[in-house]
Design a protein that fits this description.
Two copies of one chain form a homodimer.
Chain A lengths: L21 H8 L11 E4 L1 H12 L17 E12 L6 E9 L5 H12 L7 E5 L2 H4 L5 E3 L1 H7 L11 E7 L5 E9 L4 E4 L3 H8 L6 E6 L5 E6 L15 H18 L3 E5 L9 E3 H10 L7 E7 L5 E11 L15 E5 L10 E2 L4 E3 L53 H9 L30 H14 L22
Parallel strand pairs in A: 6-10
Antiparallel strand pairs in A: 1-2, 1-12, 2-3, 3-11, 4-9, 5-8, 6-7, 7-8, 9-10, 13-14, 13-17, 14-15, 15-16
Helix pairs in contact in A: 2-7
Chain B binds a DNA duplex through helix 4.
DNA sequence: ATGTCGGCGCCCCGCCGACAA
DNA sequence: TTGTCGGCGGGGCGCCGACAT
């Protein structure tokens, strides 16, 4: 009988998938990874998806790949299904999502999409340690950081000499690993001894990889791993060529977009920083609460070595398409940025608008005056289809009757209500500066410019759920360049 | 520093691909695997390609996949490039091929395609052994079959007591493995001792897997492995959904077909019995030297346990499309077959015509009389495009002027000549029975029917390079049903 | 001819505190 | 507080022929 090296026979029934513990999955995925809830609206960026595959294949999409002119750079989708997975060999976490491009909107789903933005997952008790050479050598066991042991492990009976106990922790595949936890040495320290080397060899861990322990609500120990950034496993290259993979992504999305049929993608949060499925509400909030200008200052979250988070400050240095040929006017990483700290060599020099947070200066906290757009919205073309304007024109949902503009901070449900009650949409304003967001170049404005005030205003408007809309006859509106200083 | 379990540091330079030894690759691929030569014409079957991926993913293509109505079930391609590969982790062999769909033909390439059919790769000296429990346990070494050791290994110095030597063998990645080869025990036998367990654990071999040794022309030892049929590694599922993979295959092929642009595929000979790139000459010979009928007897090659070949006899029990919706009138495994031996449970019940050999009864070896079709060829439809008739109508190369039929045994170069010199094509006959090959149902003929004679005739005609062609006025031809018995 | 096992030597895995960073 | 190392004891890796098939 075939037995694995660790003595555990392989699962005889491949079809049965045990459900993965969501807390453990998220702990392994890292603090920055959030998955949109099922039943909400999301934006799918095929460009980002392609990027993830390129990272996995260590090969970019090249010129052989056909263009899909009818495939927009982003698709509004209803998220039908999310299942969590972990690679059977590497324990690499990934999620499978079923998306369906939509052109009509369900009110409950819109509401759910709004509410999901506010939900915060509770912090759980866990610790994460990067393995040292001693931890992974065959010479000894695992040195447990003291705070971690005291926070996560069951308390030791210190009447014993030495204090010791047996720990059982389950991994993502629900395999149990047992360790001897002992408190000894001079000075005293927590160690995992017996059982540890089996774990290291079974998971094929090396110095630099990380291990994390979680105590779940039932005080059960869970155990996950995070591998150091190693070469992308281009193992899948033996199945499908890189070109075919990229084509598959684009063709599948194009087919689903044309037919409004569901399609399935895999999101691998640690393979590459390509979060290509974005909650619609998050996108909307980001796009319409921030005025993006060259030179603008922002903050952005990054993951620390020990699975914490910290913010880095940066400046927007340019706004341009990554791929002007294939993905023109895409918002996928169209912001070129520089970072304040010189040690920022590893941080990306391109980000998307929903990844960054505006820098709010306390000086500007007082509410700004209500403002109106000075420029009338251009009257719609004939034969336009129903649109959600703040998603750009390529989404393909246009409404010839109601030339709605949507304003910063307008919630999805409010927007939906307006769609159903067109009379409410009259005599409201069009925040014209928003149009500049989709433009390829924004005017350069001094760092003390007014755009940040506008961003602040938009946030405040959102808090108050103010509604205003376009179009109608030319109205008195406030162009950002003309906004009065406070 | 990260070091693999076997103490060998991973290759620091992933970009440098050492060329794989072709002999070793073919030995690992098995005796039935032949790759078409570069520069020849091949047929590419997207359906078979999709099948291979489905086998790798353990999931068939399902209904979500769009139809590509403009993608024929087979594409004539020029084979631009073939590179041999082996998976870095599993040593699984696969080949990368660059194909370009064509509609014009280069004479040299046609000639090469013809000649390639006749070339036989020389047999090399190698042995293959399926590992036993003792071979893979940590308790001992590897028991070398006596004949294998005497044929492959350098001769031992039997003056030593015991006779022993150090062997060095290189694997597909050009890694060297050293073994102590000793002749000892009672009774005496050849054993590999020191070094063997490192190899077993390094390659993660288990009982049931096979190992093979080759001695190349420079008397260097080469070492390969073949894993037992284990669960398909659906590891790639963490990158791309099964649907997207299938779509990628079809869309890539459709794009290449429409633009006559090159595309790249991976052929994994041991993942599944899906040989979906077929030399054009092999296809042509198979299709036009055999009359396929229900009840027809045939032989087919299979690989034996020890990497030999043997033929099994079978009977054609049906002719039908595997997938009448997606791939109508495809020749991909359109023959349903039964096998003579009851132990045939593992053999496929569907094969393609180029996989089988006709059963030639010695009684019929004497040359049959020349025959002519009694039925006139149906005059061509208007607006037909230029075609290669023996490829069916969906290939899309039609010639309204010359309603050429092509006859059994007509070489590609000869056919090409006819295309360039239409006058040569006059006053020749159309073997009308060939048309039945593309029909979904063939008439059932008693097992002593005449079709086998016709198949034989076709072979002989091919050997003599006889030419005859259609159309012209109805001619005196011999229909197979009316062929006189010998 | 070759698969499996008992015997057993020795290597190295793995537990210990020392010591230093 | 915790990473690394020398010390060292014992489990199991791995080499041997016996024996069976």
């Amino acid at each position: 009988m075939r037995v694995q090296a660790n003595g555990v026979a392989p699962n005889p029934c491949e079809g049965v998938r045990k459900s993965i513990n969501p807390e453990l999955w998220h702990a392994c995925a890292g603090p920055l990874v959030t998955l949109p809830p099922v039943g909400t609206y999301v934006l799918y960026f095929p460009q980002g998806h392609s990027e993830q595959v390129a990272a996995s294949m260590q090969k970019d999409a090249d010129a052989h790949i056909p263009n899909y002119p009818n495939l927009p750079s982003k698709l509004i989708c209803l998220l039908h299904n999310v299942t969590l997975h972990a690679d059977a060999e590497t324990d690499e976490v990934y999620a499978q999502m079923t998306l369906q491009p939509v052109n009509t909107y369900d009110k409950d789903a819109l509401l759910a999409s709004d509410l999901a933005l506010k939900s915060n997952k509770p912090q759980m008790e866990f610790f994460c340690k990067t393995l040292t050479a001693s931890d992974t050598s065959t010479h000894g066991g695992f040195s447990v950081p003291r705070r971690a042991a005291e926070k996560i492990f069951p308390p030791l009976d210190f009447l014993l000499q030495p204090p010791a106990q047996e720990l059982v922790a389950r991994d993502l595949h629900d395999n149990a690993w047992t360790f001897r936890h002992i408190f000894r040495g001079q000075p005293k320290r927590h160690l995992l001894t017996t059982g540890w080397s089996l774990f290291v060899s079974g998971k094929r861990l090396f110095a630099g990889d990380s291990v994390l322990f979680i105590r779940d609500e039932k005080s059960q120990l869970l155990l996950g791993i995070r591998r150091a950034n190693r070469q992308p496993t281009n193992i899948s290259s033996s199945v499908l060529s890189s070109d075919s993979m990229h084509i598959g992504i684009l063709a599948a999305a194009a087919h689903a977009s044309a037919n409004h049929s569901p399609f399935t993608i895999f999101y691998n949060p640690r393979a590459s920083p390509s979060e290509f499925v974005i909650p619609l509400a998050k996108y909307n909030k980001a796009v319409y609460s921030q005025q993006i200008t060259l030179g603008m200052r922002f903050r952005m979250m990054f993951e620390t070595e020990e699975s914490g988070t910290r913010r880095y400050m940066g400046t927007i240095t340019g706004i341009s398409d990554i791929d002007p040929v294939r993905w023109k006017n895409s918002q996928w990483r169209n912001l070129q940025v520089g970072w304040d700290e010189s040690s920022a060599g590893e941080r990306r020099n391109r980000v998307s608008i929903w990844e960054i947070e505006p820098v709010v200066t306390p000086f500007f906290i007082c509410p700004p005056p209500f403002f109106r757009s000075t420029r009338p919205r251009q009257l719609g073309m004939p034969d336009e289809e129903r649109t959600i304007p703040w998603l750009g024109e390529e989404i393909g949902i246009n409404d010839p009757q109601s030339q709605n503009g949507v304003i910063p901070g307008l919630s999805l449900v409010q927007w939906m209500n307006m769609q159903q009650n067109p009379r409410l949409t009259n005599s409201t304003m069009q925040p014209d500066y928003m149009r500049s967001l989709t433009g390829p170049v924004l005017q350069n404005i001094p760092s003390t410019d007014l755009s940040r005030q506008l961003g602040l205003q938009a946030q405040i408007l959102q808090q108050n759920n103010l509604q205003f809309n376009a179009p109608g006859p030319p109205q008195q509106t406030q162009h950002p360049d003309q906004h009065p200083k406070l």
